[in-house]
Amino acid sequence: MAFSEFRPLDENSLIAYIKATPSLSSEISDSYDGLEIKEVGDGNLNFVYIVVAPSGSFVIKQALPYIRCIGESWPMTKERAYFEAVALKEHGGLCPQHVPQVYHFDRTMSLIGMRYLEPPHIILRKGLIAGIQYPLLAEHMSEYMARTLFYTSLLFRSTTEHKRAVAEFCGNVELCRLTEQVVFSDPYKVSEYNRWTSPYLDRDADAVREDNVLKLEVAELKSKFCERAQALIHGDLHTGSVMVTHDSTQVIDPEFAFYGPMGFDIGAFIGNLILAFFAQDGHAGQGNDRKIYKEWLLRTIEDTWNLFHQKFTALWDENKNGSGEAYLPAIYNNPELQKIVQEKYMKELFHDTLGFGAAKMIRRIVGVAHVEDFESIKEANIRAGCERRALELAKTLLKKRRDFVSIGEVISAMKQVQS
Amino acid sequence: MAFSEFRPLDENSLIAYIKATPSLSSEISDSYDGLEIKEVGDGNLNFVYIVVAPSGSFVIKQALPYIRCIGESWPMTKERAYFEAVALKEHGGLCPQHVPQVYHFDRTMSLIGMRYLEPPHIILRKGLIAGIQYPLLAEHMSEYMARTLFYTSLLFRSTTEHKRAVAEFCGNVELCRLTEQVVFSDPYKVSEYNRWTSPYLDRDADAVREDNVLKLEVAELKSKFCERAQALIHGDLHTGSVMVTHDSTQVIDPEFAFYGPMGFDIGAFIGNLILAFFAQDGHAGQGNDRKIYKEWLLRTIEDTWNLFHQKFTALWDENKNGSGEAYLPAIYNNPELQKIVQEKYMKELFHDTLGFGAAKMIRRIVGVAHVEDFESIKEANIRAGCERRALELAKTLLKKRRDFVSIGEVISAMKQVQS
Ligand SMILES: Nc1ncnc2c1ncn2[C@@H]1O[C@H](COP(=O)(O)OP(=O)(O)O)[C@@H](O)[C@H]1O
Ligand SMILES: Nc1ncnc2c1ncn2[C@@H]1O[C@H](COP(=O)(O)OP(=O)(O)O)[C@@H](O)[C@H]1O
Ligand SMILES: [Mg+2]
Ligand SMILES: [Mg+2]
Ligand SMILES: [Mg+2]
Ligand SMILES: [Mg+2]
Ligand SMILES: [Mg+2]
Q: Which residues belong to the signal peptide in this entry (chains A, B) (predicted)?
């Protein structure tokens, strides 16, 4: 075999690789006339090639043993591609409408071949910056999260299946550690990697590092992240890991997947929608004040949680006499008890969601990796204003999350900060 | 090799095994004159042989692929011996004063050779039934728990070490499932295995199965047990897993070990002391009303938690600039913050301890496996009275654990139920 040991591919060697790989060459009917290959990786970590021929197409994603946007000075196991492939297949099996199909995986090469999400698919974050409404977004994302999280939890699985899967994903520890560092640690200490819109936010960044209550709360969330194997989470579910059209919603890039707290995924998605909301004022102008768009974003945030709640508890009801071992039917088979059990579970999950969502927001404002929503606002003082409002809300959510009873109250808090 | 595949040993084949095993034969200087072997397994699961020669001694524990006290009809992996050996070595390394040394482990034979805890060592439970005071018990057990739990948690370990160890102990899933069933499930449903002092406790057993709040709370504890990898816990730390003399305290039998919630161990130990307390009235008589002994038990319970708290937080303080990744020094390095962080952590741990302790008490009264503390009370109506008081307290602890602020309040509640 031509590729019996790892090597980084480029546009040329990729063709040789495809020719040697039936599961890929068959996708383009083995015909290489008019084949076009383009590297498009705009993500932070990996290389992504789009392969389009008249007869078909696919995407090749390869992990190199370091973090792409930083370089070889920050090594990172290429085994992440393995966990990404396993998660894509697992989540894809549970929710095929919203996960691209995997055609091929090569562990030696840390390489995944998957469906090309053809235009007009774009990265959701870019759509949000452009002010495009996606009427099915909340519906689709709540469906994706409800199904992937429910079916990989002990609400559906036996302990035997659960512990086997937990053990396997313990292997993705390097990626977990990266999250621990950039989400739960660096923003709360002096770190060479941190940055923010300076000098505007200098005092805000200081305040984050000096806020004892905030640090107390973020420690609790970090413990949950490190210790609680609740479900197979995506692990990086921001708006840059979702590709969309008007009708289609596709979740990509689960290389951070492991058994962790469900609220980390739901919070990542909702937290990034909240960032998109606070960035809108920086995109307003030329006769578009983004007011209507902001209303749509608020509705989408509210709908995402409420639909998730509805779909998740519906799956629970449907499967309450199934093989899940958390709540045995012989014990929890009365409607009143089933109701209070679900209410308690969903309440904790809601508070986890707000806490993790807030932590993900904070790190995007004062940590190493920022979001295009804010970065694309050219005027620094306007950007800083947007970021400060998002930061203020995030701190409130993180510290007072247990006081929030519904997503409606979060929306109210957002409006209040905004005004 | 004579024992290249698994076979259950008996007194005779054990001699051949010892002769073929240098790490064992050397313990008795290879001299077999006057060698005595006695099977003493009074535990529920395994076979234990005491091997004593003039020149030395040891104990051999062998796991068979079923549960001893039930028989071959309840299969149970003999791989539990592997996890017991790993836990004995790990905990023994952290706290050698209170864990018997392992001389030999044979995975094929599911067989452990370890130090013989020679007389006057007896099982603590038997000492408690006999009304014997152990003045160092709280000191020793708090030391054992503080060291084993602290050093295997993220307060001391890196995430990398933690996830590797968690993954390995996921393999002990069959034993975890046994706990899930007999502690968290069976007592709350109709099960062929359940029993209780009938007819006296018939209504009490019904009440457990019909108590929605109790079932709601026990579900939360079960989730923690299944999902939260906080430290390498012993997993079966009742008073039958501790051997004592006046001066020595030795913890045996960690075959249920895995990465779980710390409160499960602390609760098991304290819960079983509480059972011992409520059993005392059944042992009173012949001029000994056990009043003084009950006072000692209450003091021991109080001291166990308070000393644990003190030792655990002292280890934390000592190691706060170490390699533990839960609370990085660069973030948590101020005394005020360190204090509130510890208070929060210890408060949650206290409530976990009460909850798990209560669950362990309940299962010993209405579940499959009872305790000799009660079983040795011959008069059924007296026994039932003792058990009912213990059950009443346990239900309060489980449901209202978050209202308890100190162990002193638990002692008060015990006195109140008792009077
Ligand atoms: N299946 C796909 N179809 C189309 N474009 C894709 C696909 N997968 C990735 N991309 C493009 O490549 C970019 C980087 O991919 P991603 O999986 O997020 O990599 P990284 O792990 O480096 O962030 C995405 O933002 C998207 O533009
Ligand atoms: N190291 C030892 N020294 C002396 N006696 C022991 C030792 N280990 C076990 N025993 C005796 O064997 C009994 C059963 O051992 P244990 O490890 O609790 O087995 P099981 O897993 O079957 O409960 C103990 O109650 C104790 O009496
Ligand atoms: Mg990406
Ligand atoms: Mg990625
Ligand atoms: Mg035992
Ligand atoms: Mg037990
Ligand atoms: Mg045992």
A: none
